[in-house]
Amino acid sequence: MVHAKVVNGCSHIEFCQYIEQLSGQFKPRNLFINSAWLNSWATSTPLPTLVLFFNDEGLIGLVFVGSVLKKNGPFRWHHALVNQSGIPEHDQVWVEYNRIFCAAENEQKCITALIEVLNQEEIDELTVSLAPTVSGWIKATEKNWYTEVENCFGAKVSLTSISDELSYLSKNTRYQVRKSAKLLQENFGKLLVRKARSAQEKLDYFDLLSNLHIEKWCNSEFGSGFNNQIFRKHLLTLILDYPDNAELIAVYAGSILIGVSLNLIDEHHVGFYCSGINYNIPNKKIKPGYILHTQMIKHYKSLGKHEYDFLAGYAQYKQSLSTEVYNLKTLRLTKRNLRGTLIHLLRSLKQLFFKLKQKTKT
């Protein structure tokens, strides 16, 4: 029997002790829900509510559950989120492959225990964002919650199934990559992949990445995370304190910087988290983003990694450079009470209106 314990106001020291205790029980194969990522997040932001899971032998898992009061005119409801706080500035360090931090064989029991707690709380809506699977959540909530599932595009490269010459690419993509590489090497010098190793190199590469990212995204809808001190502190803690879990890679043509990437690492898996790309190279025929990724794909293949994951979010370059596409799933649960039913009905009507609007356009 697994039961859940809600802990409010957990200190960072206490949290680290829980993580250390659990890390001795299992080895998570997850780029995000691991001790390095969770500890880094815990050092950079006030912790939301922590839920601990116990069986007869002791602690077996944990998860953060943030909660916010949402408003729409006079309508109010309580919204909970798994491994997020609900505060946009705190959640700009997004999480993917979202799940409870526990051994795989205990996950369903922990989900069920969490839902039993939330059934008794004043929570009307629960979101599990960008999860690899949501079947366990649906199983635990089918009696008392409405469910809605949204798919999010992801793409990756199987490094064990491709050649060093990237012959898996389409003819057009391969031509663009080769042409860009040729122009760069003719004008600036040999393509080089460099990893930041010392603490000072990591800080220098981080500044390069930050400046390029801000230049590209500062005027976009959500802006650049590198203008957010919580985002910066989380990533700096991750790359400085957990070198086995995150690293900075720069690609150069001679002395000209092409781009810098922050990548998440586990034993066989690489996740492309974010990058800063030099779009000021004086030749519009050069595609620096393609060069950054293809050089990293070759680099990680040479190191014996099995997979290069572009992570979630559609982009044409991901489609073009990948060998496989997949979906992460965002699950929205609304409780079968008055407020939850209203939320579910209003969202269903909104989606229906959007579909009808799109249909009339075509």
Written overview of the protein:
Residues 171-319 form the BioF2-like acetyltransferase domain. It is a single chain. With 362 residues, the protein is an alpha+beta fold. It has 2 domains: 3-153 and 327-361, Gcn5-related N-acetyltransferase (GNAT) (Aminopeptidase, 3-Layer(aba) Sandwich); 160-305, Gcn5-related N-acetyltransferase (GNAT) (Aminopeptidase). Helices cover 39% and strands 30% of the residues. The protein has helices spanning 12-23, 35-44, 88-91, 107-120, 135-141, 171-187, 199-217, 229-241, 288-302, 316-321, 338-361; strands at residues 3-7, 49-55, 58-72, 75-82, 101-102, 125-131, 145-158, 191-195, 246-253, 256-265, 269-277, 307-312, 324-335. Strands 1, 2, 3, 4, 5, 6, 7, 8, 9, 10, 11, 12 and 13 form a 13-stranded mixed sheet that branches. Helix 2 (35-44) packs across helix 8, helix 4 (107-120) crosses helix 5 and helix 6 (171-187) crosses helix 9 (288-302). The longest helix has 24 residues, at 338-361. The N and C termini lie far apart (54 Å).
Instruction: Give the H and E element order.
Output: EHHEEEHEHEHEHEHHEEEHEHEH
User: So how many helices?
Assistant: 11
The level of helicity is 25-40%
Through-space gap between termini: 54 Å
Instruction: Tell me, briefly, the overall form.
Output: globular
Mean pLDDT: 94
Estimate nothing, just give the exact number of structural domains.
2
**Could you name the CATH topology of the largest domain?**
Aminopeptidase
- Architecture of the largest domain in CATH? 3-Layer(aba) Sandwich
Rg from alpha-carbon coordinates:
22 Å
